[in-house]
């Protein structure tokens, strides 16, 4: 075993020092431990140490029925539960060859963009607070609260929504839901202006972020970065546009990119994304089609409560699905979705049974964390905090 | 989105530039291919993996410049037991391809891709940690999610889901 586990940190040269940052550090956004090799105030090397939140979700999934995996997926990344639900559902639907009704697809897009706004707001607030701008946090959480109320209205839960089901969404949203979304989304551009007024031209914020934690285009690609981290380095990739899923091809939006590759560029890209998400939600509200929210597949989708109490077949299917699950044809699928952090991919392998043979989550935080070393080499310790904030990691997503 | 039967005939799949590129590079390296659910899978011989990835990365027609994911599937008690699965993504053509390497259960080892994509490092450490597959020439192959002194590899099929081992 020894030759396989070299420990490169221990043989540091004389003038450098090894320092621990985390796992209980307020600006590591969770339980991330960083081993910093420093020369005075300058970073020589960074070794991220992760795994504190590893709960073995991939293993647990193998012991659950397909539909029982859905509630596990939103516990991975607690800031974008809907995106995780969606990716898993899309993967299984692809294996089953299920057709999803348009109304369910539009609802999924709407909620996904609200999730993106939610996640970016938490990122913006905490990132600005790390750098020293306290006020933005309060503004961001004011709007986030409203989104969480919308989630509660639609699914009964603020954070662990599990609203999407294999074959559609669980129930039709409540009557006043679209009105509430409209009120929120119409007022939202003004709120973005508020955040930008506080930060974009703020000399302290600009000094702490411009030119800090630079990541070149080549390095970003080599280190498998995705999402805003990659786009801020000048690579024009957005899976919503390049590999449309769940009906994203019906909506018009721009993909913001920047070429500077620093913390400030990543900030600009994410703020621009907030505006684009607002546009998409607006489009979904204007043209949402009527119709069912679940696919017509009685062997996979649970019947309505009302039907279950009045129709014999519905009761039988309900009993069958709950007790035995449903079988999925043999095969494998990799479904990638543009999550707020980057490429969220689910690799689902079926052996033809009622439980997935293997579920693997390719999580964006895990991959993006590797860019930290390149970003911080030769910079000061204070810049590490800005760099961690700028790649927007969620440790639950990282460790699964 | 009706289900279509998968295509596994290599001759038929040569119309895909990825398959054509690999066959032109080294026909012996391609053990098979599959087109299923609109996704292309190519089985690559174990020792030629890095060469195959280099070919796909540098070929002008496909340009697979980024590595999306590395993972593994344990098919215990089948032999060869492990499938190590690589997903490549091209930021130019926006296409994906899946490469698979079959490894035996006795000594699962394959060449590391860290020289091509340094970002493969974390993914390969994860596969090593959870499946016990070794990646030769990996610069820092140690456990990443489980504690360093953990015994066994949790995602193997002969590892129990609950209870002590």
Mean pLDDT of chain A: 87
N to C succession of SSEs of chain B: HHEEHEEEEHE
Any idea what the CATH superfamily of the domain at 10-109 in chain B is called?
A: NADH:ubiquinone oxidoreductase Nqo5 subunit
Count of helical stretches of chain A: 17
List the helices and strands and how they pair.
The complex is a heterodimer of chains A (400) and B (165).
Chain A: E1 17-21, E2 33-39, E3 42-49, H1 57-61, H2 66-73, H3 81-96, H4 102-131, H5 134-155, E4 164-165, E5 168-169, H6 177-199, H7 203-209, H8 217-222, H9 228-231, H10 239-242, H11 263-287, H12 305-310, H13 312-324, E6 331-339, E7 342-350, E8 358-362, H14 364-368, H15 371-376, H16 381-391, H17 395-399
Antiparallel strand pairs in A: 1-2, 2-3, 4-5, 6-7, 7-8
Chain B: H1 10-13, H2 17-25, E1 30-36, E2 39-44, H3 49-58, E3 66-74, E4 82-89, E5 96-103, E6 109-111, H4 120-131, E7 134-136
Parallel strand pairs in B: 2-5, 6-7
Antiparallel strand pairs in B: 1-2, 3-4, 4-5
Characterise the protein shown here.
The complex is a heterodimer of chains A (400) and B (165). Chain A is mostly helical and 400 residues long. Chain A is built from 17 helices and eight strands. In chain A, the strands form three sheets. Chain A has a three-stranded antiparallel beta sheet. In chain A, β2 and β3 form a beta hairpin. The N and C termini of chain B lie far apart (43 Å). Chain B has a domain of 100 residues: Beta Polymerase, domain 2 (2-Layer Sandwich). Chain B is of the alpha/beta class and 165 residues long. Chains A and B meet through α1, α3, β6, β7 and β8 of A and β3, β4 and α4 of B.
């Amino acid at each position: 075993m020894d030759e396989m586990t070299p420990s490169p940190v221990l043989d540091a040269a004389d003038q450098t020092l090894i320092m621990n940052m985390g796992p209980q550090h307020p600006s590591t956004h969770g339980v991330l431990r960083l081993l910093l090799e420093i020369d005075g105030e300058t970073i020589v090397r960074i070794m991220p140490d992760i795994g504190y939140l590893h709960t073995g979700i991939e293993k647990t999934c193998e012991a659950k029925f397909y539909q029982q995996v859905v509630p596990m997926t939103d516990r991975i990344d607690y800031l974008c539960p809907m995106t995780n639900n969606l990716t898993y559902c899309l993967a299984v639907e692809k294996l089953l060859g299920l057709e999803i009704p348009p109304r369910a697809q539009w609802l999924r897009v709407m909620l996904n963009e609200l999730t993106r706004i939610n996640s970016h707001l938490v990122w913006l607030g905490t990132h600005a607070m790390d750098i020293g701008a306290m006020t933005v946090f309060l503004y961001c959480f004011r709007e986030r609260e409203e989104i969480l109320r919308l989630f509660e209205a639609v699914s009964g839960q603020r954070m662990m929504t599990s609203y999407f089901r294999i074959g559609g969404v669980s129930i039709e949203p409540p009557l006043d839901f679209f009105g509430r979304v409209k009120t929120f989304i119409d007022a939202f551009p003004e709120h973005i202006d508020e955040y930008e007024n506080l930060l974009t031209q703020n000399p302290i914020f600009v000094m702490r972020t411009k030119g800090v934690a630079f990541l070149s285009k080549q390095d970003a690609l080599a280190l498998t970065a995705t999402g805003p981290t990659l786009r801020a380095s000048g690579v024009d990739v957005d899976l919503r546009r390049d590999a449309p899923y769940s009906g994203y091809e019906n909506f018009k939006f721009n993909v913001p990119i920047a070429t500077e590759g620093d913390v400030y560029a990543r900030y600009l890209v994410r703020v621009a994304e907030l505006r684009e998400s607002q546009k998409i939600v607006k489009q979904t509200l204007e043209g949402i089609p009527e119709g069912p929210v679940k696919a017509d597949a009685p062997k996979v989708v649970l019947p309505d409560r009302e039907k279950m109490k009045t129709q014999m077949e519905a009761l039988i299917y309900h009993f069958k699905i709950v007790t035995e699950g449903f079988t999925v044809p043999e095969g494998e699928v990799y479904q990638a979705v543009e999550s707020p952090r980057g490429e969220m991919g689910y690799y689902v392998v079926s052996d033809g049974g009622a439980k997935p043979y293997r579920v693997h989550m390719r999580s964006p935080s895990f991959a993006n964390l590797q860019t930290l070393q390149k970003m911080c080499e030769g910079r000061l310790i204070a810049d590490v905090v800005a760099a961690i904030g700028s790649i927007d990691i969620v440790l639950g997503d990282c460790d699964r | 989105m009706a289900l279509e039967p998968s295509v596994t005939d290599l001759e038929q799949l040569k119309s895909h530039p990825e398959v054509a590129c690999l066959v032109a590079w080294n026909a012996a390296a391609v053990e098979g291919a599959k087109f299923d659910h609109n996704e292309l899978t190519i089985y690559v011989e174990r020792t030629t993996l890095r060469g195959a990835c280099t070919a796909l990365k540098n070929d002008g027609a496909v340009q697979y410049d980024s590595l999306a994911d590395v993972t593994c599937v344990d098919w215990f008690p089948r032999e060869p037991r492990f499938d190590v699965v690589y997903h490549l993504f091209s930021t130019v053509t926006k296409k994906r391809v899946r490469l698979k390497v079959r490894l035996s259960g006795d000594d699962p080892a394959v060449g590391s891709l860290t020289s091509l994509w340094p970002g493969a490092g974390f993914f390969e450490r994860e596969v090593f940690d959870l499946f016990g597959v070794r990646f030769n020439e990996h610069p820092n192959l140690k456990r990443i999610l489980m504690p360093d002194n953990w015994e066994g590899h949790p995602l193997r099929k002969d590892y129990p889901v609950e209870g002590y081992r």
